[in-house]
Amino acid sequence: MARNHSREILLSPPAFILLAVVILTIAAPWISPYDPNAQSLADRLQAPSLAHLLGTDALGRDTLSRVLHGGRFSLSVALITTLFSLLVGTALGLLSAVRGGWLDELFLRVNDLLLALPEIVIALLIIAVMGPGFSTMVLSVGVVAWTPTARLVRSMAAQALSTHHVEASKHVGASRWFILRHHVLPFVAGPVLAQAALRFGLLLVLLGSLSYLGIGVQPPQSDWGSMLAEAQPHAIRSPWGMIAPGAAIFLVSFCVTLLGNRITHVLGGQDVLATEAKAEIHD
Amino acid sequence: APEKAADPEARVVVANFRAPVSNWALESDDAYVLSIAGCLETLAKYDQGTKTVEPMLATSWKQSSDTEWDFELRKNVEFQDGTIMDAKAVAASLNHVLKATAPARAVNPKTIKKVEALDADTVRVTTPGADPLLPYRMASVNAGVLSPAAYTGKGIDPMHHCTGPFAPVSEKAGQSLTLDRNENYWDGEVKLAGGEIRYITEGATRATQVQTVEADISMSIPATSLATLEADDKISVLKADSPRTSTLYLNNSRAPFDNPELRKAATMALDLPAMAASIYEGAAQPATGPFAPSEPWANPDLAVPQVNLVEAKKLVEASGYKQEKPLEIIAITERAEFAGVGAIIQEQFKQIGLQANVVTKSYGAAEPDVLAGKYDMILSQRNRMIDIADPIGFLQSDYTCEGGYNLSHYCNEDYDKLVGQALVEKDETKRHDLYRKAGDILAEDAANVWLVNEQAIDAVGAKVQGYVQDPLTRYVLTKDLAKTS
Amino acid sequence: MTRELEFIDLSVSSGDQRLLSEARGALRAGELVAVVGRSGSGKTLLTKAIIGLLPQQLRVEGKILLDGQRLDQLDEKAMDSVRGRRISMLFQQPKRVMNPLLTIRAHLLEALGAHGWGKARQHEDRVLSLLEEVGLSPAKQIAGKRPDQLSGGMAQRAMLAIALAADPEFILADEPTSSLDSILKSEVLQLLRRKQQERGVGVLFVTHDIASIQHIADRVVVVSDGQIVDQCPTALIFSKDRHSKTRELVEASLPPLRTLRATDSACLLEAVDAGKNYTRRAKGSAALNPTSLRLHGGQVLGVVGRSGSGKSTFARLLAGLEQPTTGRIIHAHHNGEATRVQVIAQEPYSSFDPRLTIRTSMSAAVHRLPAIQAGERMAQAMAQVGLPEQLLDRRPGQCSGGQLQRLAIARALLTEPQVLICDESTSALDSVAQRHILDLLLDLREQMGLSLVVISHDMDVIRYVSDDVAVFYEGELVEHRPLDDFLADPEHQHSKDLVAALDITAAVPSAS
Amino acid sequence: MSPLATMVRRVLGLGASVLLSSFVVFLVPFVSPGDPVRSLLRARMDIGAADEATVQAYAEQFGLHDPMLVQFGRWLGRFATGDMGISHISGTPVADQVLPAIGVTLSLAGSALLVAIVASILLGVASATRAGQWPDRLITSITHALIAIPEYALAPLLVLLFAVRFSLLPSAGFDSPASLVLPVFILALRPISFFTVAVRSGVCQALDSEHVLAARARGLSSTQALVRHVVPHGLLPLWTMVGVWFAGLLGGSVIVEVIFAIPGMGRLIFDSIVDADIPVAQGGVVVVVACAVVVTGIVDLVHKISDPNVRIGVRHG
Ligand SMILES: Nc1ncnc2c1ncn2[C@@H]1O[C@H](COP(=O)(O)OP(=O)(O)OP(=O)(O)O)[C@@H](O)[C@H]1O
Ligand SMILES: Nc1ncnc2c1ncn2[C@@H]1O[C@H](COP(=O)(O)OP(=O)(O)OP(=O)(O)O)[C@@H](O)[C@H]1O
Ligand SMILES: [Mg+2]
Ligand SMILES: [Mg+2]
């Protein structure tokens, strides 16, 4: 990616918003106005005020502080699973495209299976076995999360490998590594990066749904999803408790998707959502 | 304003917290759904108002020996399919439950030896030992009576097979049971044309349903929705002491809580009124001890434990307990509010120098360790009067040395002796006296920290008339329930 | 009054850039006017501008008159009734311009303005007669087919039927024959000419290949760099004193001036009963039946045959890109090294990775050498194909098709091949560029003793370069002889057809 | 590859997928903490300890203490004869629970996809025909926003708004068309975005294609060309996506089913895993996987038949 491309991506509003969110969550221990776990049962379910900018929750804890701290958890789990799926997916996708044969066949079957089993069911199975928690969350989502990346990489790499120019390169004696490095990786990198951004957004929402169902992060830890679940019963009296974490998930997911879209856009590609769609059409 | 007249064509929709899962097996909790629906009836009935067991399908009963009880059946009661309810049908129904692989808690071979028809109108129930509580057992929903035709090869078919004021006519799997008025009800005219029991396991959804008038009655409203519903003047919210107490179980069998001083300190550290007011939204009362104050066997002298951090700290020091690693509070996921309760306890324990972590687990995952005594604390809640309106089962299984469900691994011979006496005590007042003494021992020993007595909360729409709340969640659709148009 | 389609001072620009400037000309009914010019000269723009279908970002100025009526001032709705009814179009790739989801019948009905519910039946007769008119029979069966079920020639005929459907007065034909092989090309050209004369239609025939239209066009218009630089009756086009651009085009279509025959030398490559069957089943026709053939040093072998006759398959076997399912390919050994074979592909634009600089793509051939040495080799190869070294730092999008094809040859040269296989390597280029590449190839043979295998469906190309001709027909090598013998006395029926087609499109002697 | 070989491979793949997924589900109680038999009993009766004898008797009834492979073999044997087994909680045939649930989910997912298809065609065509202009940019922003919405936050808010506040729609249940509105809307959001993007790019591509130009040259108006030539092509990429999404929604609508108290497949699987009712979970997962594989297979086939680009295949050489 050329330099001005990176600039176009990094100097965009969604990138700024994301950066701000990341900085705020990282700095949460220092900047959040209250201890996120400090209860004040007398001050429960307060509306936003100067003392509590986003109000308080059912235990009188400061919603703003909890959103900031909860973000650390939400974002880091989503980030770890995204990175995991990026690495595993790229490696397996490349392997499958390059090696072909039975490996590819196996890959396709596993993919079919994982595609047929809804993510949330798989997560549920793993949680049933391992019990809820941070690592379970990462694992349960990670088990499936790599497949879209792998499918994308596989199909794009296969596409790259079947081009006339790769055949031409091969025929004048290019090594496997040369082809991978010059013809395949640059072709795959952009869309995969864009897709990773999209996946991050989708995973953030998915992970939130696990917490929301009560099978994700477990109290006293909390993330945006579990905050939503906790706040939902009080939604009529105190909608802020729901709106704040809901908006946080939405904002981050939205911005990161826009960022992904910007990547595909400067690469002259289609909408970032199409990377996911492309990944779905296989075989 | 004068009450509006009831509409004879009206139907009432009840949002129930429980969905039938066992194909209507009467030994399972599905029996409660049939009972709520006004379909299933029992020989006797525990009346919440008079606190006595009263006739229902049986008009009277007598104890013909220590272990034999004869129930005189009501005459001319017909099942909804038109067949006559006779002793044979009743005995068959009860024997069905007794033969179940996983028998009911109140009605099982350990409590009832056999049931037989003496003549057309008399049923004899034989118990293995003297059991003054047998009429209570016969009032439990598991002892319900269905027409012989209900027992089919593929399990139980309740459609038109009950004796109650309402006959089930159709079911939408996993969603609802629809009922029509039983025109031939033995106890007189049924005011409603019919009703529907909707299975809605999400508490918040039940609360919403009564607000949106999709349901007329929503049962077991979660505390979190209480304030909203109470603010709605078209809805009346009914509360009653339920026999459930949220309890912080302490493992009495291993350090540190094998030390009664430390258990007492734990009790003193917790601000129960604040907990009841916050997490429970005032829908629960701070507990005074193992029983709710409204129960006849509760000790009226017991008060809510006062927070006394100074004293508590002293006790902790006196106990000589040196904390090496944080204690663990298991909060079971089945009850959403325990996460918050755990958080509060964690905070308040901190103030007396006890570090604790909250871990959440499904009850199933926690149970093996808890039963094996490998835990520190678990937050759970317990129904003292499961199926029968008497706490003896609870006192026996939960706190005697050999108790089958003694989560806290509590063991006190004096206590065991009292429970043993109560088991065979025929006189109710004396029995209640024994219960109270047993309860006092538990409180004295601070076996657990009883946090709050929960309340049964039902929300009822403005059009409903004649609804009488049953804290034991057995009766909802009754012949007297009515609705204005 | 004869009907007339006239364009006056027609300009097309994109931003500040003039793509077509102040073109002027007229087309009368019953006349066939050829528009010739090199690739990118603006021929397609001209036709699209006339029919009013240029993309919106292009600006059109000037007048277009149809029988004195200003087409450029008509609104879209009025224009819709001119298009197809009075002026229709023929395109280069018939399959690509037909909707793959619809049958030929549906296309025809559309052109008849009869694509509503229930109208199909009424017009069935008209559909069938149109198809028969263009020589497609059984018409009924063909009407029900979809474009991909037709062969190239059939599709082009169907296209013509569609264009004729509404009985237009003018047809704008944009290179309708340049994707066809020689035999089909001559068939379609004759058909077009016949229909044009029967119906008295005016045809504007766009092509880059003068040779193909010299017998049918009444007039020729020469376009170069967006300008009409010359126009005259066809017969006068070959005169020496025409515009230099005209000369360039004419020369590119001239018959061979050379009759050099390479002296026989050692056999480099030999196919022994080499055959290929892509399907695993024993039954079913093989892509290539067992074929035996020898290739000598310095020899130029021309390979012709229809589409799908197995030419490329044979080339891939020779090049070792595919393993034969029967027989084998024997590489001669010279100083312990086997004969090196390289292939130049058809599409210049797809043989280089569009994201990489030419240098990076080229380095595939020499990436095992030290950087300096690799650079030297590349410079040398560039010199051999007559290209400046700066081109190496461009990307494929910044090069013309002819340049890219040279670059592809340069890349092949980096591996120091003895045999170069050119599979339709010039058919995507205009006639001038094509001639330049062929000359380059012949030069390389001259200088380096390269053997060439030139695969083409264009007999002109074969005749221009080959020493020997190999004719493939339905997966079979049906004839393999020296060029002169072949031209004088073709044996196989298909060969005869090829040679006959050559006569029809053959260029007249340059002195005229 | 010949169609027959593809079919055979697909069927084998289906079998393998079904077997593998059912085995994975089957393993859950063996490797997870807690006693599955007690879980089952708890689902029948409220929290409390069943005594050991009851546990034994109950396990005996369903053969739950047999070695793992014996149990799985038994399940397989039954399954081979088309019998999905008996629920360990209700004691009734699993099919009696799974079939109604799949019916519910099919109609839920089907309606959601129908809504998504219609919406995305409108949005996709609208945005493609105005590519680069404000309607296009607006629609693109919407599609990006839709996928970022956490449905578990939106659903309760919509219930508050439409059911509680304005009493326009039911808050839960699955009995009237009105009760479908909110869940279908929420389920449709994400497919709408993905489909819209697919339709948009398909239509854009078709708009650029030569056959549309040729159609105009044949005298078709731009609207006619759009309807007859552009849109049908723009929709081609949609159908495979519909298949994949359909498969995904079959078991993947847990959140919506929980929030709206809909007795669908996602919920059934969710509950049965939580309660350790493995035959039901197995039955559910098997049906979901089978449906998904069959649906994607059919869509693939239809795609291969209907899309000429795929049908012709890429020419080699
Ligand atoms: N939409 C467009 N926008 C900008 N430039 C264009 C556009 N269409 C064509 N051109 C440019 O206009 C010039 C003439 O193009 P045109 O397609 O008319 O060439 P042509 O003579 O038909 O060539 P060929 O023989 O290759 O078909 C070319 O340089 C081309 O790059
Ligand atoms: N990779 C392949 N797999 C299967 N069949 C193939 C493959 N390549 C070519 N064929 C088939 O083999 C036959 C010969 O094809 P080939 O490409 O050699 O023809 P050709 O003479 O080069 O045609 P064209 O002039 O169109 O390039 C055709 O029927 C073709 O469809
Ligand atoms: Mg052109
Ligand atoms: Mg070829």
UniProtKB/TrEMBL annotation, chain A:
Q: What highest taxon heads this organism's lineage? A: Bacteria
Location of the protein in the cell: Cell membrane
* Keyword ATP-binding recorded: no
> InterPro entries under this entry?
BP-dependent_transpt_permease, MetI-like, MetI-like_sf, OppC_N
Q: Where is the ABC transmembrane type-1 domain?
A: 71-260
Q: Which UniProt keywords apply?
A: Cell membrane, Membrane, Transmembrane, Transmembrane helix, Transport
The topology of this chain with respect to the membrane is: Multi-pass membrane protein
- Where does it mainly reside? membrane
Q: Which residues cross the membrane?
A: 9-31, 73-98, 110-128, 134-153, 200-219, 239-260
Q: Keyword Membrane, does the record have it?
A: yes
Similarity remark? Belongs to the binding-protein-dependent transport system permease family.
Could you tell me what this protein is called? ABC transporter permease
This protein's species is Glutamicibacter nicotianae
From TrEMBL, chain C:
Top-rank taxon, per record: Bacteria
- Record bears the keyword Membrane: no
Keywords in alphabetical order? ATP-binding, Nucleotide-binding, Transport
Q: What is this protein's name?
A: ABC transporter ATP-binding protein
SUPFAM superfamilies cross-referenced by the UniProt entry = P-loop containing nucleoside triphosphate hydrolases (SSF52540)
Q: Name one GO molecular function term.
A: ATP binding
Describe the family membership recorded for this protein in Swiss-Prot or TrEMBL: Belongs to the ABC transporter superfamily.
ABC transporter domain mapped to chain residues:
5-250, 269-499
TrEMBL record, chain D:
> Which UniProt key words apply to this protein?
Cell membrane, Membrane, Transmembrane, Transmembrane helix, Transport
Its record classes its membrane topology as: Multi-pass membrane protein
Q: Does the keyword Membrane apply?
A: yes
Transmembrane intervals:
12-32, 101-125, 146-168, 180-199, 238-262, 282-302
ABC transmembrane type-1 domain boundaries: 102-299
Q: Which CDD domains match?
A: TM_PBP2
- Localization: Cell membrane
Q: Which family does it belong to?
A: Belongs to the binding-protein-dependent transport system permease family.
**Protein name per Swiss-Prot or TrEMBL:** ABC transporter permease
